[in-house]
């Protein structure tokens, strides 16, 4: 009994020490407040340019509980939802820090590693359109490369490469999950990858990007003739988005900068020379909405876990209270999880699906011209961080 508990105790002590070491840096970052992490507020839609905007959501960071308030605006003309004001490069660095890497790496790495069935279903959507074989596949926003590892079982003769801004992609290469690892901004790297790929995939990636227009143009550039583009993103038109309000997990503030209605994405892909071959709503649905909403609500009222951006570590009494509250709420969480599973088969038909998936084929071989009038100008922090899905 004592021996089995020792690794857990050691890990907890190591984490506590790491948090203590990081706390002075966070304290210095927050000394000037959070206003400097935001750009100027936009008065027009970054997708279509219309100026008829309305506030859709105001919330805080419900996952890490870092300080700050975040606003999502909706364009009345096209339905595009976007963070406004949007985080600057300094803001993105601050709010992403210790989420996917650092303090959060072990926890999220374990989550990603248990989703092989989800990854396989994503890859299966390409099978009917890959009769001629696929030589190279680029997974953009690959994280630790777990999708590529799972997809290789369906496409054993395909070379999978990964691209991401974080060091996770380098880990993926060392672990043999990807052949080539590209670390950096996709739009900046796309010219060196021009025409090399039969498939480019973006799973819960575009919503993290500062400029989705540029990312789509980069995908077009990286694809060869008749190449396939596979995209999966949260569906902002899910009924859960309104029913659950700020507790709907895919809002994921402050990380999700843009939420794209499917009709907008289809239209943009058509403008870029793609033909949409497949649109799925029920299939990519992840049945966690009710469970996640209950957990987020409970987590918001319970005493905080220790974190480097909090003024100090919680005492033993607060830790015990937190554990007691979650234990008492276990029946509610279990019931929410069961209801999620029960509703999953009808989520697509009932418009409850929290995500959609598009597969499109590039039919026009010419490269996209620079200066698309519908796209906003490039910003210095263009790029995306790995996803949480």
Mind explaining what this structure looks like?
The chain has 389 residues and is α/β, with parallel strands linked by helices. Among the domains are: 116-248 and 256-286 and 352-362, Rossmann fold (3-Layer(aba) Sandwich); 288-346, no CATH class. 35% of the residues lie in helices and 17% in strands. It contains 13 helices and 11 strands. The strands form 2 sheets. Strands 6-5-4-7-8-11-10 form a 7-stranded mixed beta sheet, sandwiched between helices. Strands 1-2-3-9 form a 4-stranded antiparallel beta sheet, with no helix packed on it. Strand 4, helix 5 and strand 5 form a beta-alpha-beta unit. Helix 11 packs antiparallel against helix 13. The longest helix has 29 residues, at 2-30. The model is unreliable at 1-5 and 366-381 (pLDDT under 50).
Intertermini distance? 36 Å
Task: Please indicate the percent range of residues in DSSP E strands (runs of 2 or more).
Answer: 15-25%
* CATH architecture group name of one domain: 3-Layer(aba) Sandwich
The third-level CATH topology of one domain is: Rossmann fold
Provide the succession of SSEs.
HEEEHHHEHEHEHEHEHEHEHHHE
Determine and state the CATH class of one domain: Alpha Beta
Percentage of residues in helical conformation: 25-40%
